Amino acid sequence: MGKQEVRKWWHWYAPEDTPEERKLVMKLDLLIVPYAFVLYWVKYIDQTNINNAYVSGLSDDLHFHGNQLVQFQTIFVVGNVLGLLPFAYLFPKVPMHYLVPTLDLGWGIFNLLQYRANSYSEIMAYRFMVSIFEASYFPGVHFVLGSWYKSDEIGRRGGIFYVGLTLGTLTAGLLQAAASKHLDGVNGLAGWRWMFIITSVITLPLAFVGYVLWPGTPDKPNRLLLSEREIEVAKARLERHGAQLKALPFTWKRLVRIFTGWRFYVLVIFDIFFFNTSANTAAFLLWIKSLHRFDIPTINNLGTIAPALGIFYVLFINFGSDLFLGRAGAITLASVWNGIGLTILTIWDVPESAKWFAFSTNYAGVAVSSVLYGWANIILRHNVEERALTLILMTAIATSTNAWIPLLVFPTVEAPRFPKGYPYALANVVCLIVMAQVVRIIYNREEYVFQYTLGDNELLIS
């Protein structure tokens, strides 16, 4: 495509949008973005609360030892991969306004059950079920975003949605600090057990809200809040930009075309590099604990520094990708900042202040996610089945690498130094930057063919 037009951050709508389209976009923003953001916020409270609970008494009460923390994280990844696979078929077939809230309900129930665990194996089983239900939420939201928004609209919405990750990680630390300080021993329950109760009380009601508010997709919309005219306008504005909205049956011919094209393989490799560019999720907390200077509430509070900075990283990178950086530029900038921190951690023998700085850059790598998945939505917009299948499989394959690689490079017994882990993550950062340029070149070449050689109709058929 040609050079991206630079727009100011406050230019929310595209210049060519009609008043009717602008009204629709605002309504979609109010229905999709706040709910996706809040639910992702809660999802990450429920996902990362285990790290805070681990340093707040869970490891002693349930007799964790050796590498059981990283094994615990691995079983979560295994559940994620298994939970993703059915949705390559289900996303285009099942109304998303039923599917997404039901997933929330499932993970909320098993998150609650963790409070009663009395052994390593019991909490491992609950955690596995949490991961099964959480697995497809992220690609599911991006599937919905790609079903309603144009290419220059996805990044900002995806960025706001993705702030839920950093805010959830931050909130989990603050909640655990408060639970350890004020609820430890109340009704005979340890502070870390109260953490699971509190987060479930927040999680479960949101499922029922989602059945009403979540708009689904234009092909299978939630008609409680969207009129026929609004659905027609939504379909027309996307079809003008080459998007296919109607799901077609999977056929062997269509599957062969998907698996013999460049898009699937390039996006899978791209995503694998991204999934391996971050340090162990508990590394910062484990390092703070290793200083032996802080009590448990203070450790949890200090652990919120990195995700708090991550809110800025995510918003700046994702807004920038839509408005002035471009997608390859946004990924490169975020990766360079993340790489600086990983370089310091790889060296390790540096002043303590440098390590505080290094851990504080880590969430710049996280900011890449919505840019990458938004770009994938744009690349795959010409075929809804290919988009669903690729979004799911790229996530499942990339996630699966986190099931076994951390056992090799981030074993708990090497915390917080991780002499293999930080160099490994840094190498993936370099590969991600290179891959961003590869995708940019291939995609621009294909879009040139689309616009000037084949024409809309022929490419949509292919």
From TrEMBL:
Keyword Signal: no
Pfam family, one: MFS_1
GO molecular function terms noted in the UniProt entry: transmembrane transporter activity
Membrane topology term: Multi-pass membrane protein
InterPro entries: MFS (IPR011701), MFS_trans_sf (IPR036259)
Protein localization: Membrane
Keyword entries, A-Z: Membrane, Transmembrane, Transmembrane helix, Transport
Organism lineage string: Eukaryota, Fungi, Dikarya, Ascomycota, Pezizomycotina
Record's GO cellular component terms: membrane
Keyword Ligase belongs to the record: no
Protein family: Belongs to the major facilitator superfamily. Allantoate permease family.
The protein's name: Transporter SEO1
Membrane spanning stretches: 70-91, 123-148, 160-179, 191-214, 264-287, 299-316, 328-348, 354-376, 388-410, 422-443
Species for this entry: Hyphodiscus hymeniophilus
